[in-house]
Amino acid sequence: MADFLRILCKTTCVTAVVLGLIGAVLFFLPKYHELKNREARCDEMQRLIDAKQQEIKRIRVRQQRLQTDPSFVEQVARQGRLIRPNEIVFVYDAEK
Fold this sequence. Notes:
Number of helices: 2
Shape: rod-shaped
Order of helices and strands: HH
Distance between the termini: 104 Å
Strand content: under 5%
Structural class: mainly alpha
Number of domains: 1
Number of strands: 0
Helix content: over 70%
């Protein structure tokens, strides 16, 4: 009878441990997937932030050139088809 109780106790303990492990896996698996999804979203956001910072850097360089380089200002103005007084502009349409 003592052997039976010992075997029953060991079987019950092993079953409890196995059920506990299965329960833990079932509880933490969705949390693990959620964590991985959040990490991927965080990485994507960081890439977007880096791209925006590069864009800001390019804009600041352009702004600095507009403030300090008269030839650059003229180049930008002419791209916008602005002219000086008494100038004649010839526009060629490349599509025709």
